[in-house]
């Protein structure tokens, strides 16, 4: 518990550095520190699958951000502050934190989850699906529709990235593109 | 600015060549044993994609694309999605969508849990191919600015060389 | 409770970065921070005190496993969400590259000044 709080404070400090620093490269590296902190948190919370995924995804995010964007423009941001936007957003986020505090009182206490559905999964998952990793049995058997939808979302986002990045099409501009089709004028 | 085609230094190339096989092996292990140990299609696919991205970063674009191009990546992506759907539709053999129709086997065996390993393999294929594909897209098609002028005004002279490179 | 609040604070930091910063890469970093906080919060809700991972090991007793294991349902939902987040971030980076190609800068106010 104390270790978790310490890690969360570490992640908050990393996020503040990532947000407020002037140099974009240090900002991206700080967000990497936050991501690895999240990975260690997952490990402490009893989710090894998520810890593995988070580490690898974090590495890929760093590579994509550095190769894709920082390479182009690594100039320091000049200090330009929009005071009204800052103050307004800070006030609204203070309100957000207050309402979150009120809402968290309705949640079950930390460390005592409800687990009405999950107890069923834990009790009968091994006999019904044959998989000893209950997370995988939920992902691929009990809630496979959800996984199908997520695969569709992944597919859509990748196709979107391809479409945005491909500036010219595969086909070359040739003769057949300029010929007129349809009803000729002297019909 | 150095030419991005060349790849990195000799040290990186040697270590990358040594490590790459182990990364791919570990990814495939994570995919295949997903229903027994922590892992599964999603993390394993990302690990395999990381291995190919290491190949591309260390050896340069040309060698990596010769091994595994963007067309192959998008083809494998579609193939993985289709395989997952086919596994789902095969459930109609027993009655409904996503039915676990193969025999469950005994727990703790590699060949157990019915269709779960098949779905894991399909998802691993899909995730690895699509993430590698998006990185290839960022590296190839986003290159019009990386190789060209920093202000983005020298695009006219950078364009023909660029389109020729895409052919090769 | 304090764990939930710290996670919410992380979320709020990401939201602040998304709203108040001018640089597009800073905005992407804000989105990444929010995504981490949301994933972490879902897992925190499902945590059981001194729990074990929801993976049955050989020779472990079933009743002890059922009573001590943490909630597997949020883990299953977050597992896919992490990978989806990577896909959406790749899409955002692609849009950023196109914007940079067009305007030669990552600054939002600069982009607004240049065109329209």
Total domain units of chain C? 1
Subunit arrangement of the protein: heterotrimer
Large-scale geometry of chain C: elongated
Q: H/E order of the elements of chain C?
A: HHHHH
H/E element order of chain A: HHHHHHHH
Structural class of the secondary structure composition of chain A? mainly alpha
Give the amount of beta strand of chain C, in percent.
Answer: under 5%
- As a percent range, the share of helical residues of chain A equals over 70%
Range of strand content of chain A: under 5%
Notes on the structure:
The complex is a heterotrimer of chains A (187), B (168) and C (116). Chain A is mainly alpha-helical and 187 residues long. Chain A has helices at residues 2-20, 24-44, 48-70, 83-104, 116-129, 134-142, 144-165, 175-178. In chain A, α2 runs antiparallel to α3 and α5 (116-129) packs across α6 (134-142). In chain A, 38% of the residues are buried. The model of chain A has no long low-confidence stretch (mean pLDDT 82). With 168 residues, chain B is an all-alpha fold. Chain B has one domain. Helices cover 66% and strands 0% of the residues of chain B. Chain B has helices at residues 10-32, 41-59, 61-67, 70-89, 116-140, 143-146, 155-167. Chain C is an all-alpha fold. Chain C has a single domain, classed as Helix Hairpins (Orthogonal Bundle), CATH 1.10.287. Chain C is 75% helix and 0% strand. Chain C is built from five helices and no strands. Chain C is elongated, with a radius of gyration of 20 Å. The termini of chain C are far apart. The model of chain C has no long low-confidence stretch (mean pLDDT 86). The chains are: A mainly alpha (187), B mainly alpha (168), C mainly alpha (116). At the A-C interface, α1, α2, α3, α4 and α5 of A face α1, α2, α3 and α4 of C.
Give me the secondary-structure topology.
The complex is a heterotrimer of chains A (187), B (168) and C (116).
Chain A: H1 2-20, H2 24-44, H3 48-70, H4 83-104, H5 116-129, H6 134-142, H7 144-165, H8 175-178
Helix pairs in contact in A: 1-2, 2-3, 5-6, 6-7
Chain B: H1 10-32, H2 41-59, H3 61-67, H4 70-89, H5 116-140, H6 143-146, H7 155-167
Chain C: H1 2-20, H2 24-45, H3 62-68, H4 72-103, H5 108-114
């Amino acid at each position: 518990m104390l270790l978790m709080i310490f890690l969360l404070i570490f992640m908050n400090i990393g996020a503040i550095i990532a947000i407020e620093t002037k140099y974009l490269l240090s900002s991206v590296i700080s967000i990497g520190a936050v991501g690895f902190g999240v990975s260690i948190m997952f490990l402490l919370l009893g989710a090894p699958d998520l810890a593995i995924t988070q580490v690898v995804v974090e590495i890929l995010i760093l590579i994509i951000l550095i190769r894709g964007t920082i390479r182009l423009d690594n100039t320091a941001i000049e200090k330009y502050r929009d005071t009204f936007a800052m103050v307004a957003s800070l006030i609204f986020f203070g309100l957000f934190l207050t309402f979150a505090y009120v809402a968290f009182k309705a949640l079950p206490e930390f460390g005592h989850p409800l687990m009405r559905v999950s107890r069923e999964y834990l009790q009968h998952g091994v006999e019904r699906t044959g998989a000893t990793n209950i997370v995988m049995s939920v992902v691929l058997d009990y809630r496979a529709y959800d996984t199908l939808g997520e695969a569709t979302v992944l597919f859509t986002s990748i196709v979107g990235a391809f479409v945005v990045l491909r500036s010219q099409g595969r086909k070359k501009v040739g003769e057949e593109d300029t010929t007129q089709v349809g009803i000729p004028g002297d019909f | 600015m150095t030419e991005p085609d060349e790849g990195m230094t000799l040290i990186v190339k040697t270590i990358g060549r040594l490590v790459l096989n182990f990364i791919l092996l570990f990814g495939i292990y994570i995919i295949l044993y997903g229903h027994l140990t922590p892992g599964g299609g999603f993390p394993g696919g990302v690990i395999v994609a990381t291995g190919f991205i290491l190949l591309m970063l260390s050896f340069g674009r040309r060698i990596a694309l010769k091994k595994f191009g963007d067309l192959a990546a998008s083809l494998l992506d579609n193939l993985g999605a289709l395989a997952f759907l086919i596994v789902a539709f095969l459930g109609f053999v027993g009655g409904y969508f996503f039915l676990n129709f193969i025999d469950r086997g005994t727990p703790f065996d590699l060949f157990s849990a019915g269709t779960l390993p098949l779905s894991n393999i399909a998802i691993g294929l899909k995730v690895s191919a699509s993430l590698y594909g998006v990185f290839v897209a960022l590296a190839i098609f986003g290159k019009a600015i990386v190789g060209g002028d920093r202000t983005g005004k020298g695009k006219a002279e950078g364009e023909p060389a660029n389109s020729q490179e895409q052919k090769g | 409770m304090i764990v939930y609040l710290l996670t919410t604070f992380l979320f709020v930091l990401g939201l602040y970065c998304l709203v108040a910063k001018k640089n597009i890469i800073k905005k992407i970093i804000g989105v990444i921070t929010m995504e981490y906080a949301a994933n972490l919060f879902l897992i925190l809700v499902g945590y059981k005190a001194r729990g074990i991972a929801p993976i049955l090991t050989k020779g472990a007793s079933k009743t002890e496993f059922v009573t001590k294991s943490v909630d597997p349902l949020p883990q299953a939902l977050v597992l896919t969400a992490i990978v989806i987040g990577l896909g959406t971030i790749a899409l955002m980076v692609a849009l950023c590259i196109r914007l940079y190609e067009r305007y030669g800068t990552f600054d939002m106010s600069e982009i607004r000044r240049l065109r329209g």
